[in-house]
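User: Fold this, then the next.

Assistant: Folding the first:
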Amino acid sequence: MEIRRDGEIAVMNQFLGRLLGCDIDVVYDKLDELLGTILPKKALRQYGVKQEELAVFTKSVMERQGRLMANNFVPLDADRVLKIYQELY
C-alpha cells in the first residue's frame, strides 16, 4: 500500500472492506486483528532472529526467490525487502 494503491489492490480493498464491515482505510488493521485471533503474530526476534540476519535473509530472497518476486503486485528491490524485515523485527 505504501507503493501503490490502485488497480487490483483497490478492488481487493473494497471487497475486504465489505467483508469486514469497515472503511477501506482501516481494512488491513481489521484484517490483522482478525487473523491475530486465529494465529497471534510475533515479531521476528521472538522466533530467535537476530537483527544482523535481516540483511542475510534479504540477500537470500533476492537471489533465490526470483519467481516469487517477479509475481509481486509491485516490484520489490533489496532495500524494500530489508525494510519489510526491519518492520517485522
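Now the next one, as you asked:
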Amino acid sequence: MTAKVLLLDEAIAELEEASVWYEAQRAGLGHAFLAAVDRTIDHVSRWPFTGALVDGVDSSLEVRRMPVGSFPYYLAYTSAEQSITVLAVAHDRRRPRYWAGRGS
C-alpha cells in the first residue's frame, strides 16, 4: 500500500532552492534533481521503514532519512499509519539536523 506524502512548507522551500541552484549549474540538472526526489518520495511512500533512523532527534518522532539518488541530499521524514511527512530536503554535509525541531 502506498502512503500519502505531505511535505512541510520548509521542505518545499528547500526543494525549490536546491532545484533552482542545480538548474543554474547546468541546464536540465534541476529537473534531474526533482525527478530523483520524486523517485525517493515514491520509494518511502511504498516502503516507509527502509529509511535509516536518525540519531539525535526527539525519539518519539522516529525520524528516518532516505538518500536522494546520486545527489548529496536526503529526505528527513516521519511515518504514521497511512501517511509520510517530509520534514526536510537536506544536504548531506551542511548543518546536520538543523530541521530537528520540525514536526514536533
